[in-house]
Amino acid sequence: MSEEMKNPAAEAQEPVEAASEKENTAAEQEKEPKKEKKKDKKKDLAAELEAAKAKAEAAEAAAAAAKDQLMRTAAEYENFRKRSAREQDAAFNNGVGFAVNQILAILDTLEMAANAPTEDENYKKGVMMTLDKAAQAFKTLKVEEIPALGLAFDPELHSAVMQQPAEEGQESGTIVQVFQKGYKLGDKVVRHATVVVAE
Q: What pTM was estimated for this model as a whole?
């Protein structure tokens, strides 16, 4: 017999081994795409994670910018509100100052009438009552008389029209006589006091 005939089991084994090699190769080939798929999934997850991080950072930056803008707007509004209140107060005070300035001439005349010698007590009483009412109205409007007599001359509050020699015990620059009373509204001078100052 020939050698081929002698070993039929060996021949049968060869196709089995070849088949198992093919199966192993096919199994390995199947494993490789699975590994690649896992790697691709990991890469996709990492990319999605990076994209999510970038979106979160962008959202945080947008939120911070919006908060900053909101705070600036709130600060601008607060400044506007304060400025408007100051301007409104100033406009009101200017109006009051103008009105008081117009009334002061009348008040000066009433004071001259009150200081004038008269025998009619009712007349004098009526003038004094009018002056008292004017003083109450000025107090309500927060208009104050500027103190002058016996004080040191202040060019911010007083207007000197004359100087006279200082008497004994008087300091130079002291106000010795008031010709016309001065008034102020808060810190604003409505009318300077007209005074005589010691040399």
A: 0.56
